[in-house]
Amino acid sequence: MGGKAKPVSSSRQIHYSKRISLLFSAIFILLVFGYAGVVLFLQGDHPALPELTALFVSLMLVMGAAWNWSLRRQVTSFVDTLDEMVDRAIYGREKMTDFEETLLSSMEHKLLRYIEISKANEQNLETEKNRIKELISDISHQTKTPLSNIMIYSQLLAEVPELDGESRQLVSHIQSQSEKLEWLITSLVKMSRLETGMITLHSTVNPVIQTITRAVSHIYTRAESKQIDIHIECNHLTKARHDPQWTSEALFNLLENSVKYTEAGGKISIVTESNEMFTRVDVSDTGMGIPQDELKHIFKRFYRGHSAREYEGIGIGLYLTRKIISMQGGFITAVSEPGRGTKISMFLPQI
User: Fold this and answer.
1) Signal peptide: which range, if any (predicted)?
2) Residue 305 has what pLDDT?
3) For residue 325, what pLDDT band results from cuts at 50, 70 and 90?
4) Of all helices (H) and strands (E), which one includes residue 138?
């Protein structure tokens, strides 16, 4: 270690500390018993007794100061040795001690054992992570191909002019359920990739309005079909450190919920505000709202409130949103009141 004197070996340090302790103990015992013997010999009325007492007190004070200095040196030396030992263990350098029956030697071997176990666990985790990556990729590939075929065949079947009304209705159900299954598989794959670290978010300082516009463009058609007005209030100069693609995905999940749970003719507002640390993006709607006892659970994986179960969904949209925002150093909050709508706020870091 640069600029630091190399500490003595652990065995020499232990022997040195024991000798110092024995020396101070012997001197202390001699002083106490010597003074007691002199007092008994002089019978307490000798004129030299005050001077002897003062001398004894002075010697005890000197002994205490010397003992304190010695202990501080021992502690400093022990800490320096321990620091050097930790550095050697971390960087795989040669051990400081052999198999000695000392405290430092025991600590060093336990530390080395702990580091070996940690490295082995880290390697196992990395291996398991790679296996999960391969499994997710296989699942994604193996399910997308047959599902795409089902959707294509159902579309071709719907174009057959000889189908009667009941058959066309059944084909329509197949198409609808296939689309839901495709969305479900895509969402589960995204969630798995985020949780296993397969996806890396690249956060840079970007204008927030572009991210908001991208998210709104994907939900606008659905909102228009329900005659839901989307109002955006965002300064074009407002910026935040975020990944535009994934943050847009998170914002889309919020907007999708707002459109789903807001009655026709309702309103959705997107308002931004910046301070020194965060840029806040509020998504407010005039929807059905969320009861207070359910509000703390809405960001959990697969959670769906009692009043939301009549609507389609599996409860991973808000979970994915919180995961995406937290991975960028931000956080998310929600306030709501049944019958009066919901406001969910995303806080994106400035630095």
Assistant:
1) none
2) 73
3) very high
4) helix 103-158
For the beta sheet containing 342-349, the strands, ordered from the edge strand earlier in sequence to the opposite edge, are 229-233, 267-274, 278-285, 342-349, 331-336
Note down the domain range covering 76: 10-96
68 Rama class: left (phi>0) / alpha (psi -120 to 50) / beta? alpha
Domain at 336, CATH number: 3.30.565.10
d(CA 154, CA 25): 95
Beta 278-285 vs 239-242: how paired, if at all?
A: unpaired
Give which of 227, 285, 229 is closest to 257, Cα–Cα: 285
Do 54 and 152 belong together in one domain? no
Q: With bands split at pLDDT 50, 70 and 90, how would you rate the model's confidence at 17?
A: low
- Residue 166 in any domain: the answer is yes
Spatial contact of 328 and 276, defined as CB atoms under 8 Å apart = no
What mean pLDDT is reported for the chain?
Answer: 81
In this prediction, residue 21 has a pLDDT band, given cuts at 50, 70 and 90, of low
Q: Contact, 201 vs 324, CB < 8 A?
A: yes
Region 55-84: mean pLDDT is 77
> Which amino acid is located at 263 in the chain?
E
Residue-by-residue DSSP string for 258-314: HHHTS-TT-EEEEEEEE-SSEEEEEEEE-S----HHHHTTTTSTT---GGGTTSS--
Cα distance between residue 320 and residue 110, in whole Å? 41
Q: What percent of the chain has pLDDT over 90?
A: 28
Mean pLDDT score, 84-93: 77
**Rounded distance between C-alpha atoms, residue 326 and residue 203, angstroms:** 12
pLDDT at 326: 92
In a domain, 189, yes or no: yes
Separation CA 211–CA 246 (nearest Å):
9
How many structural domains compose the chain?
Answer: 3
Residues 212 and 191 in one domain: no
Residue from 235, 334, 236, 350 nearest 292 by CA = 334
In a domain, 104, yes or no: no
Instruction: Give the CA radius of gyration of the chain.
Output: 37
